[in-house]
Specification:
The protein is of the alpha/beta class and about 350 residues long. The chain is about 45% helix and about 15% strand. The longest helix has 25 residues.
Length: about 350
Amino acid sequence: MRTPLRTVAVLALAAATAALTGCAASAASVEPTPAKSIRVGYFDNVTHAPALVGIHDGLLQKALGTTALKTTQFNAGPAEIEALTAGAIDAAYIGPSPAINSYLKSAGQSLKIVSGVAIGGAALVVKSDITSADQLKGKTIATPQLGNTQDVALRHWLSTKGLHTSTTGGGDLTIAPTDNAQALTAFQAGKIDGAWVPEPWVSRFVLDGNAKVLVDEASLWPGGKFPTTVLAVSASFLKAHPQTVKALVQGNADAVAALKNRAKAANDINAQLKADTGKTLPTGVLARALDHVAFDTDPDAAAFPTLVQNAAAVGLGTKGSLKGVFDLTALNAVRATAGQSKVSAGSLG
């Protein structure tokens, strides 16, 4: 039986309406929502103190509300970035160099830096008889991992002193990517001659290993200010759950504020280190480390072009534009609520 044309038209209109309704429902279903959980990576370093205090004091979880906080510890940035890229974590307290490299390699698709965390707190520590760069020839110096923020800083500084290094080994001296704890043990045993490390490892080398600071990285930057740790999130997670990212940024800001109470902060840092590693830092080591690190939610975006140039100069950079690497929307909303000034990403937002 043939269907009348009018009936066909009605059916077609009904189908079109249903399709449009379906599209609307589909569009509604992908609207950003708070995440059920967020997986955050961090290091057991003083340069990641806002993570340590934020976890121990429950500041991150309080800000996240019903979103469950899940955490994972890492030793260095490149391994953490691999986890973020692979989808094993959603956010990372991390050094700027691995974050920059990931962003450039992915043509801007991998992550966004949403807040600052720590400023300063890294140095080259060496045996007491080493007094100049020239004396590093033929020596072995450790860094946390090839391509991490301290590794790039060491290689670039050496290049300014006329010393050649290679990412595949060799050169005027050997750079040995080594876990920080193992590097200290190796230094104490006389197997390496120094290390470029973040706090608290600088202080541990000095106080536990009788090392001396040959180069405080702060001396290499205008005003002694350089970013050591930032808070980055997966770009896809930010798109799907901007409310959760804002909550994480709020929790980080609360932890940064809590660090102003140094005595309580020191106790809380050690308590979280104990929970994570079974060990705490000696009072003198922790006090010295905290004296050399500042905590701020401003990520110091102005320093990032220099970081890119330094990495490229030592063969650890990736060509590309950093435009868009920062998304400071949530941070500036949080800062406004706290009565703080707006942070600019310059041309990188």
